[in-house]
Amino acid sequence: MSTPTKSRPRPRADSLRKSPTGDRTAQARETAIPAEKISRPPVGHADEGAPLVQRAVEALRKKILSVPHDNPFLGSEDELIATLGISRPTFRQAARLLEHEQLLKIKRGSGGGFFAQAPSARAVSRMAAIYLNSQGTTLQQIHNAFGPLVIEAAALAAGTANEATRSRLTDFVQSHDGFEELDDERLQMRVVLEFERLLGDICGNPAVALMLSVMRDLVRDPRFGNVGLTRDRARSYAEFHRKLAEAVRLGDADMARLFVRAHMAELARWKPVASRARRDADVTHAVTAGD
């Protein structure tokens, strides 16, 4: 009579899968920062009534923002579900929301998993612009908010101690000299927007730079019409660029503020007009109709 043999435990499925990236992925898995298990908030806590999905999003977002950029691996779906202590449907809802925020990247297949994605100012700006649009923000409200932001950015840029940084606007103006005489209105507008973006970059305040980006995205919404660049308006922008760039280069914050205020007052008097291409088409149509 033979002695029955004991069955050996089956290896976990995870141990049978091999990542094509080899040891690096394995090391990333081992060093992934654990997330905190989600538990019900204590009575009276601000999150006491928050849905579980919302709390899962917040916990996962906190984990994403804490991981080092050189090791963005968060874990597999099973690992994160176990770590957070939530159900698969709840985890997947939370993951979809974070993927929409562009904070989470999901890779399928062998060697895949969930990876942190650094927050993008561009993505944040677009979402903020969408929200403000949904609130019916008017062009006048945008102008009222945009002016002080540009004034602050200009003063901060002029006040920076780094002379090379202060000279970046001057370099930009010189490299785009004569843009106001171009026939392509889209290229002219690109120069205007790039100048504003550069001003935000060199001002040294990420909050001001982000809000400037939000205002730029918002003001380009089609419902406001097109504050088109006539030839005179393009020349006005070019003159403003030259004056502000020189004030910033010299480190004169008061003069920088003065130039921005004068420019914003001029913008407030402008009315929406059709693009140059549309105006030319309308003239051609009128002439043809007259024939």
TrEMBL record:
Pfam families the UniProt entry points to: FCD, GntR
Gene Ontology terms, MF aspect: DNA binding; DNA-binding transcription factor activity
Annotated InterPro entries: GntR_C, TF_FadR/GntR_C, Tscrpt_reg_HTH_GntR, WH-like_DNA-bd_sf, WH_DNA-bd_sf
Residues covered by the HTH gntR-type domain: 50-118
Entries under SMART domains matching the protein: FCD (SM00895)
UniProt entry keywords in alphabetical sequence: DNA-binding, Transcription, Transcription regulation
Domain of life, per lineage: Bacteria
Start-end of Basic and acidic residues biased regions: 11-21
Chain segments carrying region Disordered: 1-47
Stated name of the protein: FadR family transcriptional regulator
Species this chain originates from: Paraburkholderia dinghuensis
Record lineage: Bacteria, Pseudomonadati, Pseudomonadota, Betaproteobacteria, Burkholderiales
